[in-house]
Design brief:
Elements lengths: L6 E4 L2 H17 L4 E2 L1 H4 L5 H11 L2 E6 L13 H11 L3 E6 L22 E2 L5 H11 L9
Parallel strand pairs: 1-2, 1-3, 3-4, 4-5
Length: about 150
Amino acid sequence: MDKKYDIFISYRRDGGESTAKILRDKLEELGYHVFFDVESLRSGDFNTRLYSVIDECQDFLIVLSPNALDRCVNEDDWVRLEIEHALKKEKNIVPVMLRGFFFPSKLPDSIEPLRYKNGLESNYQFFDAFIEKLQTFLKARPAVGR
């Protein structure tokens, strides 16, 4: 049986992968079940599986590295498709903004609402405080406390 996930992490491989992995490791350490596509996606139809995981998660973290949303102008861009699906399914979307990230002046209409989601600036210097703050944004609760 597949394990159920609490949190889906979306990110760009170039610029966001290391932060996404650190977030996954830390959140799993705290007892959350976190979907991290590189290691979590084993087999099956890629897009169908991704959408079903987003469906089962309460929280959708989007790691926003510099220029992370630039390729979202392409309708088949995976980060755009993941954001669109999370918005459509009314997931709790938490942007995690890395140093140097700025929202583009124009986003596709389908993901424009992302701009207005309450998010956090990632802070490696005060990482534990950042993780504590991030937990207040999450709807899921760690398995340890369930």
